[in-house]
Amino acid sequence: MAERTKYILDEADLPAQWYNVVPDLPEPPPPPLHPGTREPVGPADLAPLFPQALIEQEVTTERYLDIPEEVRDVYRLWRPSPLYRARRLEKALGTPARIYYKYEGVSPVGSHKPNTAVPQAFYNAAEGVTRLTTETGAGQWGSALAFACATFGLSCEVWQVRASYDQKPYRKLMMETFGAQVYPSPSDRTAAGRAILAEDPRSTGSLGIAISEAVEQAAADPGARYALGSVLNHVLLHQTVIGEEALRQFEMAGDTPDVLVGCTGGGSNFGGLAFPFLREKLAGRMNPVIRAVEPAACPTLTRGRYAYDFGDTAGLTPLLKMHTLGHGFIPDPIHAGGLRYHGMSPLISHIYELGLIEALAIGQQECFAAGVQFARTEGIIPAPEPTHALAACIQEALRCKEAGEEKVILTALCGHAHLDLPAYGAYLAGDMVDNELPDAALEESLTALP
């Protein structure tokens, strides 16, 4: 009998709860601070931006939270997602390692983002909110929120980072097809956007700027709220359906990962896969090395400072203790638009500081080479973001080849690249360059930390 290539759970196996890693950590993460008082923020401080249910999830100390049945009903459109054994990639590399990938590209928008967009739209609609504003980099999050808003009858406005808005026109069309209004950021529709354009009319934008614009719009309208696609605790909480399913699929495979690898921008995809495995590691039931991979052009964990900083460029958000490159940092317009954020999830930053995970940064040419090799062996063209994780997987698999080790490697393939093909076109044409972050530029950016 042929060995299995994919491990598929039934709809009945869809997780009924999200997992909160905070109660299992050796010490709790530092709280967000009010930028004016420097005191920990309370629910009232967050109420203009988020519904009460999400504020409670942001600060909860409960280990597990029930997933509402209305959310699980939408999840069933694509969840549980498959776990694949990358046998053809293993063969091409000549490695004794066993490589698995959890594939989130089966969702309606082709990425992991609806795992949190759906509950966010649900909780907002349940509390009478009629309009959601948000930012998006590559467009995957904006597409996911547009889909979720259409599902629950909300209007949706998206500020898309200018570089990605220009690079990825089909993402804009997808968002508009789901009913969203999409604006390039920085825009002239907000005070934050106008201020940036006055300084630099040709600004390529950043996630920090787009967040400022979306937050400004939400705060001015009592019927609106803001939705964030990564970084915050409740977002990573929702994404843990990925890791919970993967644990059950590894039981089916009769295997246990030795190395877990995920790409990190704000941290939601990485946390979603890693946190349930980190729980098992902290409990002594397995001992995987957990490795976060980021772009060399935007290296928050590997070169950023662990400090309190704003989550946005204009300084409208609470202060978050996180690895940051400085809230004014404008990354080079690399093709992995979803990883071009100046900060890292405070929870992942805290876990990194505790020494529970590793991090490395890789240039985009090596990442796209990995993406092309994966496409030609496994048949899926990966989004630019997970090519970072694939490049690290290939590095690990080749180390196993040299050492003759049969390690088990797991990664999250968080989306496909069907709407990102111009990035592959640039790579295949030889037009792609590696953007290294100069020390001087980083130091200048960090001088503005609050």
What is the topology?
Blueprint: E1 6-7, E2 17-19, H1 43-46, H2 52-59, E3 64-66, H3 69-75, E4 83-85, H4 87-93, E5 98-103, H5 114-126, E6 131-136, H6 140-152, E7 155-161, H7 162-167, H8 169-177, E8 181-185, H9 191-199, H10 207-219, E9 224-226, H11 233-239, H12 241-253, E10 259-263, H13 268-282, E11 289-295, H14 300-303, E12 305-310, E13 319-324, H15 346-353, E14 358-362, H16 364-378, H17 387-403, E15 408-413, H18 421-428, H19 439-446
Parallel strand pairs: 5-15, 6-7, 6-9, 7-8, 10-11, 10-15, 11-14
Antiparallel strand pairs: 1-4, 2-3, 4-5, 12-13
Description of the structure:
The chain is an alpha/beta fold. It contains 19 helices and 15 strands.
Structural class label: alpha/beta
CATH architecture of the largest domain: 3-Layer(aba) Sandwich
Q: Rg to the nearest angstrom?
A: 20 Å
Find the count of extended strands (DSSP E, 2+ residues): 15
Which fold name fills CATH's third level, the topology of the largest domain? Rossmann fold
Total helical elements: 19
